[in-house]
Amino acid sequence: MKFKSLIIAALVALGGSSCNTKQFLDINTNPNQLPTSSPNYVFTNALNTTATNIAGNTNGQGSNELGFYWAGQWTQGNGYIIVTTQFAYQFTNGDFNYWDGYYDNLQDYQYVINNADANNQKFLKGPSKVMKAMLYQQMVDLYGNLPYTDALKGAAVLAPKFDDQKAIYASLITLLDEAIVDLKANAFSGSYGTSDIAFGGNITKWVQFANSLKMRILIRQSKVAGSDAYIKTEINKIVTEGSGFLTGYEASIGGPSFFQPAAGQLNPVYDRWGYDATGAKRALNNFPRPTKFLIDGLKAAGDTLRLKRIAYAAGGENGNTPGVSTKAEIAANYVGTPFGASSGYLPANTSSVGPSLLVKGDYNRPYVLMTASEVQFLLAEAKQRYSDVTLPNTAKAYFEEGIVQSFRVLGANTAGAAAFKGSKIENYDFDSSTDKLAAIAIQKWIALTNFNGLEAWAEYRRTNLPVTPQSIQVPDTKRPTRLFYPNTEAGSNVANVTAQGTVDVFATKLFWDVD
Predict the structure, then answer these.
(1) Which member of 201, 225, 234, 447 lies 3.0 to 4.6 Å from 188 by CB, making a disulfide possible if both were Cys?
(2) The pLDDT of residue 37
(3) Percent helix, strand and coil across the chain, each rounded to 5?
(4) Which of 446, 448, 443, 404 is nearest to 427 (CA)?
(5) Which residues contact 194 (CB under 8 A, 6 or more apart)?
(6) CA distance 202 to 187
(7) What residue range is the signal peptide (predicted)?
(8) How far apart are CA 487 and CA 485, in angstroms?
(9) For residue 50, which of 113, 175, 135 has the smallest C-alpha distance?
(10) Cβ(310)–Cβ(290) under 8 Å?
(11) pLDDT score recorded for residue 2
């Protein structure tokens, strides 16, 4: 593993117990000097880095972006030469290296865990363990087996062994249990809550986020043979713990109290695909385009309220009226781009990523890590698969609430969700849907659009739903099932990478991808 000397922005000689955001983002650090850092500053920086690693920014693509493409939600605008790594699946171990950034970020959280007690900041251990669990879950879903028990030990272990991916998943449940114990025992004190740019020091919300992540990890394994008893036992433990789940709000990073209208200090999504600090449109604003499959499906179901939040009408956002399309916002003006199309679908005549994600001037929107809608669909699937778990509501109730929460987070009128009850529309009306698990999977896919591409791609691999079209660039039916180990790891940890055997990114499936 690539060893990281603990170089963390905004950590040198920043005494005090709170975090001044503008000062934090303005700090420069000598990359050749190992700083002595207060855990609260490391924690704030780690959260900001997590958002950037997942979302990307002007420096490069984040992991979520690839997920949006390979889940069939986004494709490429035709104002560019087609990117064959993404849309023809012509990639190698030199492409899509999220590994190094994730492990550097994990090292930050581990630093906080290791140093919180000595600095009288025990309240940071629980949140850091939650974030560590989330990042490792995403890493497993990208790469499979990877360093876990030997990882994050700095110079003590420069070539860590790889752990089995299924064992890591089990360890993450234990880690989240530990996090919850730490959280309940150590409330944020004084002004230290300002260092928590996720939940502002709210312990209850951190515990609910931890429980929600546990549900994600457990349900991801629901098709693995012999896992039912384990999954049901763990779900019942969550219910017994009693704090509940993300409900009516998202797990998110930053927001108006953190992101600033200055270069390098914007919400990372806004910075990558939206506008710069002066309001000038980024060149990449025309790159990601909602797919024809996505837009046509929403129109066919009469799901126009969400459509108008997921996408702008053809021609994009009206620069003089932020958040509103240039063309009239009627269904006929929403035009998707076929996945992988390289010509015929220019920005002027196709829809772009919509106001649920990008609005001119809205540079300080929180960056969403997990939505309440996703959680409701996880609960719906749990209750549908395991009717005897102690979750209090029915699968139908969780399903319908998932749609409501999807409307809410998109910024659509939640009253519109009620129109689908009793509508007889397949995969929208729970009672009329012939395959309840398919309906849950498809609604979750819609709800993840614009918010969590990684989860959408992982769920697509797990459920094979929805049945999205193959890229126009690909002559056969093969699709990626995972990523290669990056060449940086192969170069520094060759024996342990070699021990994983030959990776075929079209055939070497992850342990939870069983069909």
Answers:
(1) 201
(2) 87
(3) 45, 5, 50
(4) 443
(5) 18, 19, 200, 201, 257
(6) 8
(7) 1-21
(8) 7
(9) 135
(10) yes
(11) 47
The whole-model pTM stands at 0.95
Q: Tens of pLDDT along 338-383?
A: 999 999 999 999 999 999 999 999 999 999 999 999 999 999 999 9
Written as six digits, the tokens of 106 are 């994990």
Q: How many CB atoms lie within 10 A of CB 401?
A: 21
Low-confidence ranges of the chain (pLDDT < 50): 2-20, 23, 26-34
Q: What are the pLDDT digits (tens) for 25-38? A: 544 444 334 456 89
Q: Under 8 Å CB-to-CB from 497, ≥6 apart: which residues? A: 162, 485, 489, 490
Under a CB-based contact definition with an 8 Å cutoff, are residues 112 and 125 in contact? yes
Question: Does the CA dihedral 149-153-156-160 come out positive or negative?
Answer: positive
Decide: 363 and 384 in contact? Cβ < 8 Å. Answer: no
Residues 506, 380: Cα–Cα separation, whole Å: 30
Helices (H), 71-147: 84-87, 99-115, 125-143
Residue 193 and residue 196: Cα distance in Å, rounded? 5
Exposure of 392 by Cβ count < 10 A (0-12 exposed, 13-18 middle, 19+ buried)? Answer: exposed
Q: How far apart are CA 105 and CA 342, in angstroms?
A: 35
Query: Is 266 in contact with 258 (CB distance < 8 Å)?
Result: no
Question: Taking Cα atoms as reference points, which of 38, 176, 182, 8 lies closest to residue 105?
Answer: 8
- Cβ atoms of residues 406 and 440 within 8 Å: no
Cis peptide before 466 (omega within 30 of 0): yes
Q: What angle do CA 214, 220, 222 make, to 5 degrees?
A: 105
Q: Annotate 187-210 with b (16+ C-beta within 10 A) or e (fewer).
A: ebeeebbbbbbbbebebebbbbbb
CA atoms of 388 and 19, how far apart (whole Å): 46
